[in-house]
Structure formats: C-alpha cells, structure tokens
Amino acid sequence: MAVLEGATRKTLAFGRRALGLDVPAPDHTVAVLHRDESEVPGLDKRERAQLDRIRLMGATGAVLMAIAALGIGAQPVHQNPVSGVRVLGIFARAHTGSLAMCMFGTVLVIGAWLLLGRFAIGGLAGSPLHRLSRSQLDRTLLLWIVPLSVAPPMFSNDVYSYLAQSEIAARGIDPYEEGPVAGLGIDNVLTNNVPTIWRDTPAPYGPLFLWIGRGIAELTGDNIIAGVWVHRLLALAGVALIVWALPRLSVRCGVAPVSALWLGAANPLVLFHLVGGVHNDALMLGLMLAGVELTLRAIYGNGGKPDLLSMRDRPPFDARAYALLIGGAVVITLSSSVKFTSIIALGFVGMALAWRWGGTLKAVFKAAALLAVIAGATTLFVSYASGLGFGWIFTLNTASAVRSWMSLPTVIGIITGFGGVLLGLGDHTTALLSITRPIAAVVAAYVVVRMLVATGTGRLHPVGALGVALGAVVLLFPVVQPWYLLWAIVPLAAWATQPVFRVPAVAFSAVVSLLVMPRGAEFQVFQIIGAALAAAVCFALFFALTRHTLPWRAQAGVSAPSQEGTAYRVTS
Fold this sequence. Notes:
There is one protein chain. The termini are far apart. The longest helix is centred in the middle third of the chain and has 29 residues, at 224-252. The chain has 21 helices and no strands. Mean pLDDT is 82; it is low at 560-565. The chain has helices spanning 2-19, 45-72, 90-93, 95-116, 134-149, 158-170, 180-184, 207-220, 224-252, 257-264, 268-275, 281-300, 319-336, 344-356, 361-386, 408-422, 429-456, 462-475, 486-493, 499-515, 525-546. It is mainly α and 572 residues long. Its main location: membrane.
C-alpha cells in the first residue's frame, strides 16, 4: 500500500511539474525570451540621413518588385490587363530579366529592413543608443507598402481561390460542399484562375471571410481585377489593425513599440505575402491582436505592463471592463471566423482573466464559461446570419493534402520515407505521415496547455505565452506556408526581445522571403540561376556604392551591448 501511495505521489508530482504548476518562476525556460527594453533618445542628424537612404532603398526595391510582377507575378489567366500591351507586356515576354529584377528588388527590401533594424533594436544582442521614432517608422512602412499594394498579386494564387469560393457563396451554393469546378463550372472565368490542386476542394475558411467575400463577389461579379483590388483592401485593413494593436501590446510587455513594429509589421513576410500575396491571414492576425488588446485593457486596465505576480492595485472590474472584455472576445471570435487557428487566443485571455479574478480553479471555470458563451453566441450569429452554416467545421483540414517542406512532422515523414526507398523497403511516406502528424499534434497540444498554465499562474505574460503556443502550432502543423510563420512572429514581436528569439526570427523571415519565387510563371533552372547571378551582381555593385553611406556595419551611436534607462510603460 505504501509503495502504491508513493508511486501515486510521484506520478502527481511529475504531472504537476510537466504542466508547470510547481515550476518556480525564475526557472521557467520560456521566460528567458523576454527582457524589458529601455527608452532611448531619437536619431541624430547623421542617423536621420542614413534613415532617409534606407527608406529610399526599400522603396526602390518595392517598386522594382511591383514592376516585375507585371510579367512574373501571379497574373490571372483571363482578364490580364497587361496582356498584349506593347510596353507593359514586355515584362511577361522577358521572364529571366523580370525574375532578375524581382530578385534584386527583394534583396533591396530585405536589406533595407535589416538596416532599419539598427535604428529599431540595435544589434541582435544589444540595444540601440538611438532609436527612430514611431512616426519615422510609420512613414517608412507606408512608403514600402504602397508599391506592393498596387502591384499584381505575387508569391501566391490564393486570391483567385477566394474569388471563386466567394462567387459560389453568392450564387447560393454551399462553398463547404462544392469546389470551384462543381460550383461554377470548369469553363468559368473564375475557376480557370484557381490552381488545379484546389479546383475540386471546398473552402477551408471561416464563415465571416466568405460572408465578406460574398459581398465582394456581388459587388465585382466576374471582374477579376476589381475583385483582387477589393480583397487587397481587406488585407490592408488587417495590416492596419496589426499596426494599431502591436505597439499597444508591446508597451504592456515593456517593449519599445518601434521594436515590435519593425519585426512584426515591417517584416518582409508581411510586405511580400500579406500585402503582395493578398492573404486573409492579415485580417485574421489583425482581428486577433486587436481583440487581445481590448481584453487585456479590460483585465489590466490602461496601465502599462502588469505585475503578474501581484494583482493588487488593479482597477475594479466594472461595467466598462466587462464591455471591453466582451468586445475583445467578440473580435477574437470574428478572427477565428476567418481562420479558426486564432481561437487559441481566447484561451490565453481566459487564463489571464482567471488570474485577475484570483487564480483559483473556480476562477478558471468562471472565465472559461463566460468566454465560451461569448464565442459561441458570436459564432452562431455569424454562421446563421451569413447563411453559410457550420460546414466550415468539416473542411478545416483541407490544406493537409499539401506536403509542406516547412512542416516538421511532414519533413520527418518524407525524409524517413525516402530513406526507406533508398534501403529498398518501398515508399511508406504516407504511412509515416499518419504517424508523425498525430505525434506532432500531441506535442503541440502539450505546449499549448503548458503555456495556458503559465498564464493562469501568472508566470508568463499572456501575449508571450500566446506567441510561444502559436509557434509550436505552426512548426508542428501538417502544412506550413511561409506566411504562417507570422502567426507566431507577430505576437512574439511584442514580448520576446532576447537574441534566442530575435536571431532565428529575423533569419527565418529574411531567408524564407528570399527563397520563395514569385508565382505566375514557370521557370527553367537556367532562368533561375541566371536571374540569381544577375541580382547578386547588381547587389554587389550597390553594396560597393553605398558601403560608406549606409550603416552596413555596426558603428558608434547605432547599437550597444546594453542600455540602462527607464523601461517602456503606458502611463495613462
């Protein structure tokens, strides 16, 4: 009996330790990702001149990409506005030259972003002596966004799937039952622009997005260019929400708003894939972050970074706080009605609320019940009011048909299957994926639960815990597209400041942005190599010409190993 009791105690102790219930705050491994940033003076005259050159460098790259997109972007099969045009049509006929121009523009934008980081975060392992102002960063970001926002879609054809699925809904057909071929017909102009792999698959998006898309379809009809423009406006609205919410969340975490916006909003993945690629992830992320900010405003008040280990002196949870909480929860739920993944944010808001209410198990159930009612009512309203119902529940896994090289379980399964082929054991990739993907799902679920517990016990800020959880979900997802990395990078930009996060985040953002080819034309290997060599030569010449006028190397007054000063806080 004593042996059984001892085993039970050890099992319970192990379980509590695994969930983080008995882990002392200083020993929490994820907490090392964060440290408060300090307020520092603005740029001096020399640095302002360098900033102007960096701004021009990025704008030039964005313009080159926009021009190249006329020939090698994700142009529509039908209604291509530059097809047959004498001057503009030359880019479509000179694929190698257009690809070289696009590559060179891409390198310029990425290089400008990295150089801008010297005035936002300093070095990856230090802090800046001088930091650019919020208005300076906003103007730079706007200047880089404008050329890509008027260019043809790039890097993805997904917007054409949006148009087709929205038209299906506009015709009164269930887009969660019928794909573009069945719903519109194989000869329909919208169907012909959808990539072949998605022509027979139903829509994997939430009812809010298709409800909005149905309105766009009724407005633009079969006019592909007008439909793309309106969808891009929707993506830009999502980016605007990110720019609104991210600095407010960062100040709550003791992080400089400019640092968060540099990594989370000026990121090349945002510019190239959310703006240039017209992805609905922009709307999802924008709504999610805005909802999190509203709910945290209700939980912690308008004060800055909350003291997570002591909730004394918090403002009373009055009618205004409940209004903000309900409004924020509704906005997060609307985000999940674009892409369901963002519903996870509601769990972290709930655990923060439970901690605000005392951190007891009763408080957890009370917060969970309240948010569940709000989320359920919002989802029911959107599903019924849109007339789209709940078919989206059964199409969430549609994208798993793709084998993504950025997904850890998928890569492990493919490599192992290929090893079996080399050993003469046959191709068992599909069977291996049926093993690796469920294991990855269990691991991701464990990380999410661990982060929820850390939030509920006050060890981690909910924004940081949410970012870490989304990072685990993304990396262990069956399918990972380049822009999916933003699900984790954007919220973590407001909290994680240490090199252990920023170095890989910056590296992944730069490398992935550079490797993805503009989609809209098929290229031969010799074209890709020739274009890459031409872009490399152009950039080498550019570097030689600007090595003394741009801050390619760390220099005095730009970055330093450490800074002492007042940490960022909200004061009103």
